[in-house]
Request: fold
Amino acid sequence: MAMIFKPTWEEFKDFPKFLQYMESQGAHKAGLAKIVPPVEWVTRKAGYDINKMKIKIPAPIRQVVAGKNGLYQQINIPERSMTIQQFAEMSKQEAYRTPAHNSFDDLEQKYWKNIKTVVPIYGADVSGTLFDPEMKEWNISKLGTILDLVNEDYGIQFEGVNTSYLYFGMWKTTFVWHTEDMDLYSINYIHFGAPKTWYAVPPAMGRRMEEMANSYFKASHSNCNAYLRHKTTLIDPQILKEHNIPYNKITQEAGEIIITFPFGYHSGFNHGFNCAEATNFALPRWIEYGKRASQCFCTNDMVQISMDTFVKRFQPERYEAWLMGNDMGVHPEGPANVILPANPPSEQDLLCNKKKSFKDRNPDLDMEDIQKNPHIPEEVKTTLTEALTIKNPDEERYESEDGEEIRKKRPKKRRRSGVPGQPRQKKPKKG
Reply:
């Protein structure tokens, strides 16, 4: 069961020390944990009057869901930019308003019942922070963990990975099943607004989760071993239950923190208009996960961090073997009988080491279901249909309602890889 921690101010002050304490209590075994911060922890002295906030959501995404019987694919279509005030007003419209409910469980049932009839817009991946800059304790924009070595040693920042992102949610906006980039830790804090419901699979069950998903999304798995990193796969937890895969469910409210742990698959949805801030971080225990994290080579938007600096600093006795490609071992969550060098590229990886078109990346997407769905705007259907006809990934782009062209990949000047020169793409990363 997911643990809930209510630390005192003294216990809370030291971020890595408290995380180590949480893991000493077995919190990581559930995949995530919730923290109710002490009252002394004030994140923003000015409060949260959104009318005084000058924040723009550059590329909010419309979330389109297709599928049936608890097995779905979610596609995110960029919309025109808007201010958070405009976003808040939109969330009050009938099409996007949270339905009446008498409990979190009741709202959860309405979520799955309306999984395809509500097509919300998510203000995801907005660079920035709402923490006071002088704040030292648990400031998501500057946690000061070993992940900062990537910037120190390589001179590269990963937006939303070792910098913070803001997320503006409305009813039914969703983060689908995934582990964090490079199987890192993550931290998510709701500054204000409605709660989030989280689902999480224990890391020890991660391989079973993957095998179950592979059995349903065969074309996607055949196309890319790491297709779950595409963040398009949405599965009703009832399907997990049918396959005897345990999962945890927890609700995060405003002022509360969720920590996800390495290789913990998680997903969830927002109950209504809210604002969360999130980033990734790393502790020494993560290094073995990072060395053996699955990689997707379909696009240039995937985070690939060189583990060299971490092995050199924290595992010097294994550094020479690492350089030679002979750092043998098992993934921390198994299977125990499979011993491989860290992050070896498979034959499929090598074949997949090229950008793929939208159609090739989404072979299980049921376009007939989308075309028949009366709740999906016609312009969105047209956009998806056109995307399926494009064969060259470099040509993929969407046009927003105000005529602004939004490319599906990021400008090449931004980097996301641990190796300089890799372009990056904006995708919804966390809840």
Q: What stands out?
A: The longest helix spans residues 378-389. The radius of gyration is 21 Å. The first strand starts at residue 3 and ends at 5.
